[in-house]
Input
Amino acid sequence: MDQTLLQLVDVTFSYPGRGRMAPVPALDRLTLSVREREIVGLVGPSGCGKSTALKLVASLAEPTGGAIFVPGSKRSRLGAFTFMPQGDSLLPWRSALDNASLLLEVHGAPRATARRQAREALESVGLGEFAAQLPSELSGGMRRRVALVRSFLPELPVLLDEPFGALDAITRLDIQGWLLRLHERLPRAILLVTHDVDEAVYLADRVYVMSPRPGRVIHEVSIDLGRPRSEDVIGSSEFAAARAALLREIRRGMGREAA
Amino acid sequence: MIARDVGRTAAATRRRTGPRLAVALRIGRRVLLPASVLVGCVLLWYLLILALSLPSYILPTPLQVLRALVARRWAYLPDVWTTTREIVAGFALGLAVGLPLAVAISRTRTFRDSLYPLLISTQMVPLFALAAPLTILFSYGQMTQILVAALYAFFPIVVTTADGLSRVDPDLIVPIRAAGASEWRIFRSIRMPAALPALFSGSKLAVTFAVGGAVIGEWIGGQSGLGYWMRFQNDSLDISGMYATVVVLTLLGVTLFGIVSLAEYVLLPWHRRSRADLGNLWRGT
Ligand SMILES: Nc1ncnc2c1ncn2[C@@H]1O[C@H](COP(=O)(O)OP(=O)(O)OP(=O)(O)O)[C@@H](O)[C@H]1O
Ligand SMILES: [Mg+2]
Output
């Protein structure tokens, strides 16, 4: 059985209120886990606390209640994951290559080693010819790809916050397939935040459905579409069934909250 | 693939416009436009003299100034050299003092709250008031001029760089902070490079202000340099000559500004597109 790499148990979090305002509860007893090589989707309505959950895992904030376990790592959570926030956050002054090698460098790899590894990775996913380009010279889709390579290079679980947010539908589909191939090549565990139901079904092995704020897991759906997956899967009846089931759970979560 | 397509489309558009027309348009915009503005100013100068019938010991005509300029020609060079050294030294000193201050201000609230009012007040003291004691303190070297230039130069550097350092997009920092990077690493890899455009904006202001600072220093307590020479000409009622020296000084200031601007262009290739100053003159397309 694949090893569990991340476990959240009853994680609760509130943002401190401004001035005299009451604290803003963002997460309410969130429980989920991610295993080795697994792609886990986290879906829910806007503002339900998805980004907050990733921030807590990445140790950029501490939960007000509950616990986050990282069984594989003796270190603190800081440095145990790579985190790609909403937007690509490439450094405008670094070339695609030097952006891709950034996190390896932070993890202590010598510059030359990091760059060689990054170059090989870029070449292996068809980005070799863009290595010397600055981010401003790349299209939105290319920037995402470079940012994804950057996140996949350290051998750590990856936290992705709506990685394909502002892309057009065609580019998005392209890059989703590309991510699946990247994942086959560099099989990291992925916790993928999205509010796109199709995306969650296409990419994930399991999907957690969250309630509106304060977010809590209200359902877990297994996506049994097998791997490797290609774009053809999207037309299949299994895909349609998984999609319908997921949508039903999201609707139910929102309905129950409104009642 | 997509990036390449976009590039190709832009190139195609350029080809359609026709290279010769494009070059002509560019020369028109970059050379003729500023030249005609300059000519307009000179005409206005003439008109002013005619309209108010100003005598030449108050405002000489452009032609008189040009004659004075040509008459002295290379004799300006030693003074230009003196003033340039003072400006460069003052600018360097301003940078050396301004950068650490900017970092301190951007890092801690205490520094910001305690230092900022003091820094602002240094700019409120009329420098004529300071030049006299400085001159006496440092007798008759170039130190006075350098210090006055530095006093003018450091302020824009502090203000713009501190702003640049504290205005870094937090999303740029998040991935490397999550990777466990130290504050120093974040500063070195993200904050500092992100603040460089701001630092260059400050430096362009600083070098321009330093010209004024050095000249005031020379006017008050110098024995050479363009400011000293201007005062000499002013005292001997050689007003055309003094304006000619102002022209030389202007050329020096524009050159120094251009050098900083060029350095920015060369050192920050990623920032070229978003610039709105002389950097445009060197733009490739
Ligand atoms: N810094 C903050 N201070 C106070 N409240 C915040 C802060 N950041 C987020 N919130 C609140 O916490 C809740 C969860 O925010 P979060 O960004 O995690 O949502 P999300 O699920 O990622 O939303 P989206 O899908 O729109 O990205 C939101 O209701 C938001 O208003
Ligand atoms: Mg979010």
About this structure: The pocket of adenosine-5'-triphosphate (ligand 1) is lined by residues A 15, 24, 26, 46-52, 195, 213 (CB under 6 Å).
